[in-house]
Amino acid sequence: MNDFRSLADIRRDYGDLTLSENSASLDPVAQFKLWFEDILKNEKNDPTAMVISTVDEKGCPDSRVVLLKGIEDEHFIFYTNYQSVKAMQIQKNPYAALNFYWPEMARQVRIRGRVKKVSAQRSDEYFLSRPINSQLSAVISQQSQEVKDRALLENALNDLIQRQNQEPVVRPEHWGGYMVIPDEIEFWQGRDNRLHDRIHYYKQEGKWQHRRLAP
């Protein structure tokens, strides 16, 4: 144990990238897309990964990583099992927070807003675009439910593959997309000496406003 550094001593410099309230776009979704173009060029792993946080019936927060699958009309879209824990929490409290973190560029984006299901047609279109085994996994998975062991899942998948043969897979009703409709979006650019840049967007009378926050 003496070979390990104290966690408090782990730190890094963030570099010289900047973000100012004057250079930032007036539209936070446009600003997100500008950043995301840079992220796709520079981030080595999982650029679409985001933490989504919901709350349970006791008001306790719950979070997990999902993948961003689209940005349409200011809506941030992801897909999941409608019988999962997060889906049950969204059904009771249709609000969520998203958090993107891209360490290569020391950038973070936080989003808070309402959550709604996307249309069945949109879910069908995305489902059919997935690799066939991903489609089949969505059919057999009872997400968040207890299973005896991994072999049970693998056997169920293999059985379905053999039964399915070359037939197209129909999206199960328990699987589909959600859209997060943002009320707030905050951009964080890591800076050396911990004087980070934070630009916070919020809606006022239906229009986006933005301001700088202290790091």
In short:
This protein has 215 residues and is an alpha+beta fold.
What are the salient characteristics of this protein?
215 residues; alpha+beta; Pnp Oxidase, Chain A; 5 helices; globular
Q: Please give the largest β-sheet.
A: 9 strands, antiparallel
Number of helices: 5
Q: Quote the CATH topology.
A: Pnp Oxidase, Chain A
Secondary-structure element order, N to C: HEEEEHEEHHHEEE
**Tell me, what's the shape?**
globular
Helix coverage percent: 25-40%
Supply Rg.
20 Å
User: How far apart lie the N and C ends?
Assistant: 34 Å
Q: Based on the structure, what is the oligomeric state of the protein chains?
A: single chain
> What's the pLDDT, averaged over the residues?
89
Tell me what portion of residues adopts beta-strand conformation. Answer: 25-35%
Explain what you see.
With 215 residues, this protein is an alpha+beta fold. It has one domain (16-130, 173-213): Pnp Oxidase, Chain A (Roll). The protein has five helices and nine strands, in the order αββββαββαααβββ. It has helices spanning 28-42, 85-92, 120-129, 132-140, 150-164, and strands spanning 49-55, 61-67, 70-72, 75-81, 95-102, 107-117, 175-189, 197-204, 207-213. Strands 1, 2, 3, 4, 5, 6, 7, 8 and 9 form a nine-stranded antiparallel sheet that branches. β5 (95-102) and β6 (107-117) form a beta hairpin. α4 packs across α5 (150-164). The longest helix has 15 residues, at 28-42. The mean pLDDT is 89.
